[in-house]
Amino acid sequence: MRIAQIAPLAERCPPSLYGGTERIVSYLTEELVRQGHEVTLFASGDSITHAALVSSCDVALRLGVRMRDPLPYYMMMLDEVAARAGDFDILHFHIDMMHYPLMRQVPAGFVTTLHGRLDLPDISPFYAHFPNFPLVSVSTAQRSPMPAVNWAGTVLHGIPGALLAYRAKPAGGYLAFLGRISPEKRPDHAIAIAAKAGLPLKIAAKIDEVDRAYWESTIQPLLAAYPQAEYIGEINEHEKAEFLGNASALLFPIAWPEPFGLVMIEAMACGTPVIAFDCGSVCEVVDPGVTGYIVRTVEEAVAAVRKIPDLPRAAVRSAFEARFTVERMARDYVRIYRQLSLSDTSDAPRDAPDELVLA
Question: Rounded distance, CA 85 to CA 12, Å?
């Protein structure tokens, strides 16, 4: 198939540091190329890909020191997508909603994967205005706040099997937290769990400016009070393999409707179990007693930490290979592409593919 992937511009594909959506777009793009499809990636100019690359900005917007307003770069990218739309069987958007008015006029099949939370008050009116445009969710839980829309399927994320090496015997003896320093990610819970369990904690996370006050007022004092908790900052892909692979467990103590939680399957790829709070997609990703434990309180998480030695790391890795590889993710998307590329691309109702049920 001739496939266009339209990525966010905040980070390159793949990101050099933090960036979940761009990372998934990159993995999907490279796997589609490997499977023999003709793929064009619309992304920042510093992206690294085997697909044809079309860029509207030289570097990712988060890293561009002269780039203050992202809107002009997205407008240029969408203009290029519209000009080339006839070259593709399917356009796959990963940029939420900016392209919607444009797609009423473009003669091509298209689908949009929603990567973020859908429970914010301004989202439902928008999608109610475009009820027939085909959407993909990244978990079933992600869908729950949405009005009636044209769901084309649910595709759980996948990553390359060789990306993160399996570690049968972690060398670190610590608990890990990987993600963002933000109230919804609850790094304060991670520190509390580690302290009550009497174990070291390593925190690898970025700090957005919007969360700077939370870092200074809440997390820094907790780190000072529990010296065995160490903040190491953002890490790259190579560092991630070492960081997750040498951890006894990943702590995922979230307090928000997580759409997917990529770090959970990254940990599983290393054989590292996950202790996650029961929010959002967690129950669709973690298999309790196999790949980790699902908990509701700090006390339950501490009890789960003590049971981590009962989980064979080989079984964690096997569960990852069965459910969360990039090959499976790409196959699921191609099923959706093949049906939608045959559909009418106006704002008339479309026949969605059968819902994807993943093992």
Answer: 22
